[in-house]
Amino acid sequence: MLDNLARIRVDLQDANGKSHSPDPTEKILRFPSSIQGAGNIGAAIELVNEAIAEMRRIEKRAQETEQYAQAVAGKAVESLRIAQERILQLEAERNSWEAYINQAIVMTREAASALTMERARFTDAEEKIHQLEVRIEAFGAIANEGVDAVVRLKDEILAQLSRRDTEPKYKESLAAE
After folding, report:
1. What DSSP string describes 87-134?
2. Each residue of 92-118: pLDDT tens digit?
């Protein structure tokens, strides 16, 4: 497009014979007031038409680019929305799992406490069993002494009975009865 404008400027300068340099800050192309020759005017109009056509093509490409950029941006926004929803879902799942983990920790601590209490009860029961075994052994020794005493007493009674049976006075007293 700038090449076409430069060509227009050169053609106009040639047609007028004077140089009208535009002020670069104004960005305005000044046409000379008197252009000689119809051929130059036709060429100038043709160049202007080409410039307009080029500007329309550029404008169309800009619109297509803008539409494409908007479509890409729309897809990006939709992807971002979907990603944010997934993040929220994952955070909810994480919170749920953290709750389960915390509950499991509490249950584990309670089980450990109950296990400690049961171990203490088991240790106490073992100690009581040991004490009962000691007492049973003591009672067994006493019972054995009692059995031994009964056996000795029985032996003594049998010995006395057998002596009496062999003694003549005892036999006579039994016969008298």
Report:
1. HHHHHHHHHHHHHHHHHHHHHHHHHHHHHHHHHHHHHHHHHHHHHHHH
2. 999 999 999 999 999 999 999 999 999
